[in-house]
Hints:
Number of strands: 15
Number of helices: 9
Shape: elongated
Amino acid sequence: xxDRSHGAPSDDASSGSDAFRLVGNExxxxxxxxxxxxxxxxxxxxVFSFSELxxxxxxxxxxxxxxxxxxxxxxxxxxxxxxxYQMRAEGRALYQTLRxxxxxxxxxxxTVDADFDCYYCGxxxxxxxxxxxxxxxxxxxxxxxxxxxAPPGAIEDDTVALEQVGAFYHHRHLGFxxxxxxxxxxxPTIERVSPADVPFADGDRQELxxxxxxxxxxxxxxxxxxxxxxxxxxxxxxxxxxxxxxxSTPLWELEFAAIDRNVTVDASEPWxxxxxxxxxxETLEIVVDEDLSVIERTHR
Length: 300
């Protein structure tokens, strides 16, 4: 359920450092913004001459200084073509990060109603934004429903677009549940871990986590069994039959994904666990083995 990233890339740390070095320079950042803004405006990848690009940045730097910083970007983020310069795909990715405000710091703390009640104590759950992180937690019993990086586009001073936060959180977790790192596209590793081995876990109310980690970029997620099984088509169909769209409903509003009350560890030798999902008078039971593969489904 966590969106925290603890790991680090194994082989590409230097390239990541280069990216931060580049965006730390105002002239290079202006060049990336100028090329990126032009593409957004024109709907295609435009080409600018040296003078046109310099004019679009509105920089006071002389030609030599501007050219120095431009050439620092050429090859990795900007491409030199016959008629001038255009943005490479890598530059567009960096531009999108800049435009989204991902590098911006936020000093204020903001707490809003999460619009659902705690499944354990009935208290209204709250969402708190603090230093770039959204924490969804019950103030009554302290159960943590989710913690994630705050999407900059969903936060404005004293307002949080919680629906957008939920969709962003859902997208990132579902990607990992389906076996795709949402940061770099690599297939993440998978293992089951005990709540006792997860610092933020509630060992008294959680049975297990499905831990997925990307060895390429270091991104990682701790998923509940219910969240992990959202990739199962039978579960999605069962929920849809009862009017629940698991792709648009925030994870913390899906009880079987938000808490482990419907998870049982059935055996240890060999290890098996069951997720039970009930709507109206129907129940779907999904059994997974020690490799977290579905081995049985029962519909009653």
